[in-house]
Design brief:
- The complex is a heterodimer of chains A (581) and B (124).
- Chain A is built from 22 helices and 7 strands.
- Chain A has 2 domains: 5-205 and 293-563, Sodium/glucose cotransporter; 222-278, no CATH class.
- With 581 residues, chain A is an alpha+beta fold.
- Chain B is mainly alpha-helical and 124 residues long.
- In chain B, strand 1 and strand 2 (84-85) form a beta hairpin.
- In chain B, helix 1 crosses helix 2.
- Classes of the chains: A alpha+beta (581), B mainly alpha (124).
C-alpha cells in the first residue's frame, strides 16, 4: 500500500467542499419549503447534475467495475439498467408526478387515493427502501477509507454518517442541490481523468490482452496482503511464499505448495505468487473463467438460469428507478412538468457519459489487479488501479482523485436518501417543523449505520439490487396505475403495496440471509422482480376492480391536475402537502 | 420593383376578445367536469399513453431482445466491432446514446402533443 497521505487529503478536501457549499447555501434556506424542496427554483441543468450526483452511488462508482472484473459482460446490464430506468421514468411518470405538486411519495399516495392508510404504508416503504440503500453506502465508505488510508472499516461509515447528518440538518434540500450538482462533476472527473492515464500506461505496456482460454493469472510475481480473514479456493496447484497465518499454521517467509481446494488466510498474511500462476478466488465469489467472462449469459457467480436472471434484473432496474425515494423527491424541485421532462433528458445524457468509464476500469482490473479475486475485495478495483498501473507520484495523485470521487459518491447518495427518509419520518412520525426535520435526519442515518457495523462482508451491489427490486414491486405499480388508471382504489393500492413489497423484501432477505442460490428456487429468490412486479400489478388491478365503490371521489380532478399542461389556465387546487391535523 | 408597396389597412382584431372568451370556455368545461371536459381529458390521456407505451415497447424490443439474441445466436459474442466483442460494444457503448436519443424524441413528441391539445381546448 502506498502513502496514505494523499488519500487522507482527498477525503478531507471533499468533506470540506461539501460542508462549505452546504453552509453557503444555508444563508438562503430559511423556510420549511426551502428545507424540503429548494423552493422549486432550480434550473434543469443544475437539477439534472444534482440528480446525477445523488444517483451515482457506491454501487455505480465502485461496484460496477468490481462486478465486471469478477463476472464479465453480463454485469454491463447494471449500468444499462441504471440509465434506462430514467427513460421509463421520463416516459411514464416524470411530468405527472411533478404536476401532482406533492413533496414525497406518501404525499402523492395520499393526494391521488385520498387515503391515510395508503399514505402510511407508502411511508413505511420509503423508510425501508431508504435504509436498504443507505446500508451499502456505509459499507462502501468503510471499504474506501480502509483501502485509501488503512483505518478500520467502521470509521469510514461513521465519517459519512456524521457529515451527512450535519449537512442535512443545517441546509436541507437547498444546500443539498448545490452539493449534489458539484458532486456529479467531481465523480465524472474522478473517473474520466485517471482513465486517460490508465489507457496510456496500458498502451505503453504493449496493450496486454486477456487470455481467453484461461482463468485470470498473475502477470508478474505478486505479493497479496490479506486485510481481513479470507477463505479462498485454489484451482491450479501453486508454490507460494507465505508470511503470516495460513491454514492454521504461522509461517515466516516459507515456501509452501497450495493444493487444489479451499484454504484459509488470516488477517495480515502475505502470500507471494509467481508470474503466470492462476489467481485463486475467494470462496464467496465464483468468478467466471476466461472463456465465459467475455461472453454473455455465462451464469455469473455460478448462478443457474442466467437468461431468467438477466431478464429479472432488467425488470428490477428499469422499473425500480422510479420507486427510489431519493430520485422522486428531486422532481419536485423542477418549476413545472415540462422542466421535469427536460431535466430527465439531461440526466440520461449525464448518466450515459459517466457509465462509459466503469467498464474500462473493470476490464483493466481483470488484467492488472486479479489478486482482488483472492481477497474478495473486488469493490476496491477502481481505487487500486491508478497506483498499480500508472505508479509513482502520478499514480498516487490519481489514486487520491479516485478516492475523492468515491467518497463524494457515498456522501451524495447518503445525503439524498437521508433527506427523503427524514422528510417522511418528520412528516409522518414527528410533527413536521424544521426542528423535527433535524431530529429525523439523525434518526434516518443512525439505524442503517448501526446495521452496517454488523454487516461487514455484504456485497455493495447485492443490497442495492434489493432496494431496486423492492421499489419495482411496490412503488412502480402504485405510480403507473395511479397516474394512468382512473379506477385504482385505496384498497387495491394498499393490497398491491403490501403483497408486492412484502414478497420482494422476503425474497431478497432470504438470499442475503444465505438461502440457496442454485436451481430455480435460488434464481427466483436472488432476482425476484420478474415474478413480484407482475403479482403486485395483478393484485392492485384485481382488488381495485372488486372495490369500485371506493374509487376516490376527486379522481377526475386529480387526473386533470396530473396531466393537463400548465400553459392551460385551469383552476388548480392547492396540493396536499401533509396530513390534516 | 420601383412600385411603392401597396397600402394596407390594419384593423384591430376583434378576434382576440372572442378567443379570450373561448379560451375561458374550453378550460371551463374541464374545470366544471362536464362531459365535454371529460372528452378533452380522455383524448389527452390516450394520446400521451399511446406515445409512452410506443417508446417503452420500442426499447423493450431493442434492449429486451439482446439477451435472447445472445442466447440463441452464440456466434454474436465472437463478432468484433471496433476492436470490441459485439456484446461489450452494444452494452458498454451503443446503448447510452440510443437511450438519450429515445428520450429526446419522446420529449419533442410529448410537448407537441400538449401544444396540440391546448390549442384544441382553447379553440372550442
Amino acid at each position: 500500500m502506498s502513502d496514505p497521505t494523499y488519500g487522507v487529503l482527498a477525503v478531507t478536501a471533499v468533506t470540506l467542499a461539501t460542508i462549505l457549499i452546504g453552509s453557503f447555501a444555508l444563508r438562503f434556506s430559511r423556510t420549511t419549503s426551502d428545507f424540503y424542496v429548494a423552493s422549486r427554483s432550480v434550473s434543469p441543468v443544475w437539477n439534472a447534475s444534482a440528480i446525477g450526483g445523488e444517483y451515482l452511488s457506491a454501487a455505480s462508482f465502485l461496484g460496477v467495475a468490481g462486478l465486471i472484473l469478477t463476472y464479465g459482460v453480463d454485469m454491463l446490464w447494471f449500468p444499462v439498467g441504471y440509465t434506462a430506468g430514467y427513460l421509463v421514468l421520463l416516459v411514464l411518470v416524470a411530468a405527472p408526478l411533478r404536476r401532482s405538486g406533492a413533496y414525497t411519495l406518501p404525499d402523492f399516495a395520499q393526494a391521488r387515493l385520498e387515503s391515510m392508510l395508503v399514505r402510511r404504508i407508502a411511508s413505511v416503504m420509503v423508510v425501508l427502501i431508504g435504509w436498504l440503500y443507505l446500508l451499502p453506502q456505509f459499507v462502501g465508505a468503510g471499504l474506501t477509507l480502509r483501502v485509501a488510508t488503512g483505518v478500520p472499516g467502521w470509521l469510514g461509515g461513521l465519517l459519512v454518517a456524521v457529515i451527512v447528518v450535519f449537512s442535512v440538518a443545517t441546509g436541507g434540500m437547498r444546500s443539498i442541490t448545490f452539493v449534489q450538482a458539484f458532486q456529479y462533476w467531481l465523480k465524472l472527473t474522478a473517473l474520466a481523468v485517471p482513465v486517460v492515464f490508465l489507457l496510456i500506461a496500458w498502451q505503453a505496456d504493449g496493450r496486454p490482452a486477456l487470455d481467453d482460454s484461461r482463468p485470470p493469472t498473475f502477470r508478474e510475481r505478486t505479493t497479496v496482503t490479506v486485510r481481513t480473514d479470507v477463505s479462498f479456493v485454489v484451482t491450479d496447484p501453486v508454490r507460494t511464499v507465505v508470511t503470516g497465518r495460513l491454514d492454521g499454521t504461522t509461517y515466516d517467509a516459507a515456501t509452501r505448495r497450495l493444493d487444489v481446494g479451499a484454504h484459509v488466510a488470516r488477517e495480515g498474511a502475505r502470500l507471494t505468487f509467481p508470474a503466470g500462476a492462476v489467481v485463486p478466488h475467494a470462496e464467496k465469489l465464483e468468478p467466471s473463467s476466461g472463456h465465459d467472462w467475455a461472453r454473455p449469459l455465462s451464469g455469473a457467480g455460478g448462478r443457474d438460469h442466467p437468461l431468467y436472471s438477466t431478464y429479472s434484473l432488467i425488470l428490477a432496474l428499469f422499473f425500480g428507478t422510479m420507486g427510489l425515494p431519493h430520485v422522486l423527491v428531486r422532481f419536485y424541485t423542477n418549476p413545472d412538468g415540462r422542466a421535469a421532462r427536460r431535466t430527465t433528458l439531461v440526466v440520461l445524457v449525464l448518466l450515459g457519459a459517466f457509465y462509459l468509464f466503469p467498464t474500462v476500469y473493470g476490464v483493466l482490473a481483470r488484467i492488472y489487479t486479479p489478486d482482488l479475486l483472492l481477497t474478495g475485495a473486488t469493490d476496491g478495483a477502481v481505487l487500486l488501479l491508478p497506483q498499480r498501473v500508472v505508479g509513482g507520484l502520478a499514480g498516487d495523485l490519481l489514486g487520491a482523485l479516485v478516492t475523492a470521487g468515491a467518497f463524494a459518491a457515498f456522501l451524495s447518495t447518503s445525503s439524498g436518501l437521508t433527506v427523503s427518509v427524514a422528510g417522511v419520518l418528520s412528516q409522518d412520525v414527528l410533527r413536521g417543523g424544521v426542528r423535527d426535520f433535524r431530529v429525523a435526519g439523525a434518526l434516518a442515518v443512525t439505524v442503517p449505520f448501526l446495521v452496517s457495523l454488523g454487516a461487514g462482508s455484504l456485497a455493495v451491489a447485492d443490497v442495492v439490487g434489493l432496494a431496486f427490486a423492492v421499489a419495482a414491486a411496490s412503488f412502480c405499480p402504485l405510480l403507473l396505475l395511479g397516474i394512468w388508471w382512473r379506477r385504482l382504489t385505496d384498497v387495491g393500492a394498499a393490497a398491491g403495496l403490501l403483497v408486492g413489497g412484502g414478497l420482494a423484501t422476503a425474497a431478497v432477505a432470504a438470499t442475503i440471509g444465505g438461502a440457496t442460490r442454485s436451481g430455480w428456487l435460488g434464481a427466483l429468490l436472488a432476482q425476484p422482480a420478474a415474478w413480484t412486479v407482475p403479482i403486485a400489478f395483478l393484485v392492485m388491478v384485481v382488488v381495485s376492480r372488486h372495490t369500485q365503490h371506493r374509487v376516490p371521489p376527486n379522481v377526475r380532478r386529480t387526473l386533470v391536475r396530473l396531466h393537463a399542461p400548465e400553459s392551460l389556465p385551469l383552476r388548480r387546487d392547492p396540493p396536499v402537502h401533509r396530513r390534516p391535523a | 420593383m420601383s412600385e411603392p408597396p401597396r397600402r394596407v389597412r390594419i384593423v384591430a382584431a376583434r378576434r382576440t376578445t372572442a378567443r379570450a372568451a373561448s379560451r375561458r370556455r374550453g378550460s371551463h368545461e374541464i374545470d366544471e367536469q362536464t362531459d365535454v371536459g371529460q372528452v378533452y381529458m380522455g383524448s389527452l390521456l390516450r394520446t400521451q399513453l399511446r406515445l409512452a407505451i410506443g417508446v417503452c415497447l420500442t426499447f423493450a424490443v431493442l434492449l429486451g431482445g439482446l439477451p435472447l439474441l445472445f442466447a440463441t445466436q452464440p456466434a454474436v459474442a465472437d463478432t468484433v466491432v471496433l476492436g470490441l466483442p459485439l456484446p461489450w460494444f452494444l452494452l458498454g457503448v451503443v446503448v447510452h446514446p440510443v437511450l438519450a436519443a429515445g428520450a429526446w424524441f419522446y420529449v419533442r413528441q410529448t410537448e407537441r402533443n400538449e401544444r396540440d391539445w391546448v390549442e384544441l381546448v382553447e379553440r372550442s
